[in-house]
Amino acid sequence: MDIDVECTDGFGSESYAKLFEDIMSDIGKAAHIEKARIKLDPQTPLFVFSVKLKAEPANKTIGDVANVRSEGPDSHITITDERYAPDILNQLWKAYGRASVDQQTRFDMNVRNASAADITKMVISSGEEYLKEIVGSLWRTMPEGIKNRHTFIDGPVVTVVATEEMFQPGMLEEGQKIHKAMCGDA
Amino acid sequence: MFKVMMYDGGVYRSGELYELIDDVGGVVLQKNRSAQMLSIIMSIPEEDVKTVEALCIDIGGVVKPVPLAGTEIAVVGPTLGRHHMPHPICDIAEELRRYGAITVVMGLARGRGKATAQINLEERMIIEEYDAAVFSLGNFKECIEAKKDLFKDVRVPVVLVSGPQLEGLEGYCDAIVSGVGRKSARMRTAPERAKLDEIADRVEDVLEHKKELIEEDPLFVHPGEIKSILENYEPVDMCLRPSPLVLHLDGLRVKIPYEEHAEIIGNMEVYGRKLKDVCTITPSKINDSSILIRIKTVSEIAYDDAKKAAEKK
Fold it and tell me: Are B139 and A11 an interchain contact pair (Cβ–Cβ within 8 Å)?
């Protein structure tokens, strides 16, 4: 992850780069972020956190993260991205019941009396939920007292502009400038 | 002279240790038992320290120096939110416990933000129940400078822990330790451990100064003596809360309800006087769950005596 911190305070600059990296790793989002740009101005106060994700948030289906094939009346699933294994299992249990889903190994499972086409189309992770998690993680990184926030989202770029009390003229424009610069890199 | 030290080990043969402490005329200041682990903070006459140390090692424990024993310290953060907790506030509290102090972690209701941070009277009075307070603030110099109102009126020694190097705040607190700031992971690297030691050393320094001030006009009785009297009081003995009696430099905290027990405690006798005459007994501001006893100084007692004598005339 490439992190660029712009700050008027020397200590804050260094510690926020570390803090951002630590928090993103803790909540498992570090691997999803390609680039981050952070502007910290505690004097104003104005904080802009902008991240460019590796992929645009979209609904993920079982077909995106696993290979599905028919075996007679049953279907066999081979997971290719293990991160989604709990979500796949959860959705299959909901749709077919626990008794019909047989997980043979970490990556292989068999579903009795299920059509491969239906399983391939099942949504396991919504793009909206994913975006919420990213925005939540940015809020968590920001100082706690900075409660007035505005979020810009364009494709894979998410930018949160925040201040403590009211947004002063120019604050949102400042955030939008950083947001556009990040979009331009895309 | 008495030396305060801590036994840290198992409960195995701990009965022998209690007996020895009693035999040499020592006092158990604090004991904490967690499953099979036991830690005892004790005050031992200097000439018997080696004998007690030898027994501690013989029964499989270790002996540690505890310079902050007999104190209760509040570690205060801007809030109890995940931005400030558990690191570094709990790391600091843990380090102070290693030095022998009893610690509490406290978050202010509205301590976050630069322009909106505030402390109310109730919070300040709760902090003042402790021997000292450690305020752990964040990463930005401007924000910490703007938050000096949080601790400037607190009437117990304050150690300020912050990220950046601060200037001009010396008059608002008793010591400043910089280089900590906001953290999201445990302080376990060598430089971070050294920083925690530095915080504990600064707390030790400010408390040492407070002890010197107390010695100028000594307390009528040592808090340990009142502790020995209260240990035999059944509700204290039956209290299931950890460390029901907590020593302060100028008194102690008794973790039983004020309304029910204050009068009985006040009528207990020490050196021929009632406890309520030689101490100020008040309820804790947190709730009615504990009693605070502040021992009057020798000059305060003399003043009270003179006032009573004048009233009689």
Answer: yes
